[in-house]
Design goal:
Radius of gyration: 18 Å
Strand order of the largest sheet: 3-2-1-4-5-6
Number of strands: 6
CATH class of the largest domain: Alpha Beta
CATH superfamily of the largest domain: HAD superfamily/HAD-like
Helix content: 40-55%
Number of domains: 2
Largest sheet: 6 strands, parallel
Number of helices: 12
């Protein structure tokens, strides 16, 4: 493999933020002084934004519109990103290594830019990326393998020259279908036992953190 570029997912891959997303509804209710029911996060994960807001409105008898609940939850998430979210283990060191090797990198995320922008700035991560891409701005989801080709084109690389780092099994599978070398990153919130099996199966290499990813690439003669 002639390694010339890298594409990174954000939540659960570069950032230790999946617990925040899982508990976004709970964090919003907490900001109102309300204790959430156990398992609220798991229930909301099965719903879209509108359905989730309606569920919270009715379940907790809130005198807020669904729009106000959605916006309030987004505000709490944005604040949590900026104040509490940290990079995953070894992520910064790995990005520094790629920078030294002059390997161009991009972020490709399903989260909206206004949510995570403050976090990237605070953590000093922006400088490592040639481009930060969001699914909403590209008007494609990661279930469409073409989205990874779009990111690679922006980097100026081809699929077989580009590493894709993801935690979500379906995203790993999608990138693999597009011909990319996929490296799965473990995340304790993303991966149940079945998800770990799926992530391992669809990754060219699966690792617990970026220190392990760096060791693998060195052994392969890619770094």
């Amino acid at each position: 493999m002639d390694f010339k570029g890298a594409i990174f997912d954000l939540d659960g891959t570069l950032l230790d933020s999946m617990d925040m997303w899982l508990n976004a509804g709970e964090l919003f209710l907490e900001s109102l002084g309300i204790k959430a029911e156990e398992g609220l996060g798991a229930a909301l994960l099965q719903m879209n934004v509108e359905e989730g807001a309606l569920y919270i409105q009715k379940k907790y008898g809130l005198e807020l519109t669904c729009k106000e609940i959605s916006e309030g939850t987004a505000a709490v998430v944005k604040k949590t990103y900026a104040e509490k979210i940290q990079p995953k283990d070894g992520a910064v060191e790995f990005l520094q290594l790629l920078e030294e090797k002059k390997i161009p990198c991009a972020i490709l995320t399903g989260s909206d830019r206004e949510m995570f922008d403050g976090c990237l700035k605070k953590q000093g991560l922006e400088k490592f990326f040639k481009k930060i891409l969001t699914c909403s701005e590209l008007k494609m989801s990661k279930s469409n393998p073409e989205i990874y080709s779009v990111a690679a084109e922006i980097l100026g690389t081809r699929a077989h020259q580009t590493l894709v780092f993801e935690d979500a099994p379906e995203a790993i599978k999608s990138a693999g279908k597009a011909g990319f070398f996929t490296i799965g990153i473990f995340d304790q919130c993303t991966h149940s036992n079945s998800d770990i099996c799926s992530a391992r199966k669809n990754s060219r290499f699966f690792c617990r953190d970026f220190f392990e990813a760096a060791d693998f690439l060195r052994k392969q003669g890619l770094l």
